[in-house]
Batch of 3 targets.
Target 1
Amino acid sequence: MKEYSVILFDLDGTLTDPAAGLVEGFLYAFRKLGIDAGDRASLTRFIGPPLFEQWQRDFGFTYEETENAILLFREYYNIYGWWDNRVYEGIPEMLAALRARGKRLAVATSKPEDTAHKVLSLFGLKGYFDFIGGADGHKTRDKKHEVLEYTLRALGSPGREECILVGDRVFDAEGARRVGIDSLGVRWGHGTEEEINSSPFTYVARTPSEVLEIIK
């Protein structure tokens, strides 16, 4: 087992469960656009990947149509949705234990960076992290590997062999592989069992306590 000194975390589906607020925001946008996008459970597929790319592909939107759809989503989410969220059981204890072991912790999320700061502050988690890296829309960093590169630079570009990303979706595993770091998939988030099993994660954990057993 390798020893890691820098632990990067995805946010949605890994540290917190944002499903309630996000799904309401998706429904708000789709109603405004007159789109039947499926039931609530099916909409959780949009939690994790960059929305711009996902909605363009799923709905065949033009660039301008996708921008408009995301603006409509944010009309709801930026006011009501971002706080309709919860921390997964065991997360604060896991973060505290990793800090006690001398690990450097950071967040690397496809969620807009300012929203990530608000969510982590809401739940008293912000103080655990040396840096919180997020997306800037679909400008220079939106995809997971772009956010990871940005976050690693902010941390002083540590050796890639020292770093690991903890996440819950295939996009996390693929982003980590693309930037040359290991990854740990968690089974409590929004990635299905099949998705986690077929993704190129270096390790997999079922609970936050298992994360602590893997990351010594």
Note: The first helix runs from residue 19 to 33.
Target 2
Amino acid sequence: MQFYNLLIRYRLWIGCVILIGAVVLNLTGTGFWPSFPLYFIAVIAIFTHFFIGPLRLIQEPMEKGEVDKVEKILNSVWFPNLLYTPIRSTYYTIKGNLAMMQQDFDAAEKHLKKSSSLGAPMPEAEGANKLQLGMMAMQKGDIKQAEGYIRAAIRAGIPDKESEAVAYLSMCQIFINKADRNSLRAAKDFFRKAKACKPTTKQVVDQIKEIEKYISRIPG
């Protein structure tokens, strides 16, 4: 595994060195075909560096919370538009998540929108992506856009119950603010769905308790 990670990290330079070796071998009279295997290996190494990228290296530092190492790996992607589409989507999702951690919400929104436009590798990832965009829209006070994103997140599927509860609570708050009878009925329905997720995160549980004080007074 360690050897494979080293190969991924340095395959561009390995490919370049092998390519130079192939050219030298070719020009010193050996001819093209004897040097062809070196050309082939070099092209594969260089191609996969730009087409697949080094994102496989991100898993370990992410699990350890080593944000600096994650950023360094992302910065080694010189031409993200050359990445295979699902990998490019993941690249922009991670960039967006890092920007959110640094509270750079404009950059986070830009990266997450790029990821969303490319389509997530898994529907659950797409759902999480759209939920984040919805939460950022709510922070900016753009309730209409927030509702659209959160609805899309729920349709796509959200990977964990905590996030799913957040989505339903956000929809509940949106419909409470609309304040007409049908909206209040929908708000209660979203609130029931949020509670059914049985979240355990303190922040989400506290939010449920706060909303329950109000929602319990709504008739129907």
Note: The chain is about 80% helix and 0% strand.
Target 3
Amino acid sequence: MIAVVCPRIWAPATRLAEIVDSCPTSLVTVDTCLLSVILLTGGSSRRMGRDKATLEFGDDTLLTFHLQRIPRTFPVVVVGEPVDTWPQVTFTREDPPGAGPVAAIASGLEHVSTPIALILAVDTPFALPQLLRFELGPESHALIPRDPSGKAQYLAGLYRTDPLRYALQQLGSPEDKSMRELVCHLLPIEYHELSPEVVHDFMDLDTPEDLVIARELLASQPRVRP
């Protein structure tokens, strides 16, 4: 996959909001070279009891649900098991497999050439439209949502790729490192305070009970219905 780097890295990612709103449930062509998507699909999924990427969601799997909603001009890197039906997507694995989200990000970033990366965990199915509305400030190295309880959603945010590479270098080996350890080397960070109305858009599917709730939300929200 070849990504062309746009020199206007100060431009906000939120220019995509109108396109996302007008066609929220299918791939659309977007004229941008600012942003790549790194979709993280690994993890042990102990509480869910199975690989989350393969969960039935919408008309197919949770992985397919995500990939069908990413605008097609974005380079997409999936960190996880490869799927033959998506030849336009770059698949890679963290080293070693199961080494955690920081190692997965490091692996995905090796295949990214754009100045901004949208990092998203596969178990956060509704966050993409919201993230594409966010504006990453010119002085910020990352924009991370934070819910009303103060929990930061590190795996559903926008990151400038050069500072992120530097943070990974400062961290050393990414194996089994936490996202909190990584972002300590990524300052300044901007936090987007989530209102109660959009908190469900950033829900994580950690348990079978969470999956039931997400399927109910999927059926009641046309903007994310397949």
Note: The longest helix spans residues 208-220.
